[in-house]
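Mods, move this if it's the wrong board.
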Amino acid sequence: MDKWERVVVGVDGSEGSRLALRAALEQAREHDATLTVVTSWTEQVVAGAPGYVAYGLVSEADLSAVAKQQQADALTSVLGDEPTPRLDQQVVEGHAARELVAAAHGADLVVVGSRGHGGFVGLLLGSVSQYVAAHAPCPVLVVR
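Not the wrong board. Structure tokens:
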């Protein structure tokens, strides 16, 4: 069995991302690889009257803290008391799909849930998983 260096997984707090985290954890353990867990957040923009938008209704620190907590909750629920592989936790500002593709450079595998938060009912793949599958520089595992 080949030794892998790194498995990347996107976590957004959804059940789909927890399933992806479980699958990524299994792959990291099987291949003795570092598990890189990526959670992203973006600044919230609210449209107002025509031509006006509101920024900063929630502070960047608050958005980052929520993302960190989502990641911590997912890790706790999936890992439990089991021993963990080498873990690299990343909470970054940016669009989830682009941040996952960036994190996947140099990785052996990137794992995403088929659907996370958002999207339209009935789509097989969410926009993040579609983007990652099309643009990742390594193999992609989509979990549903």
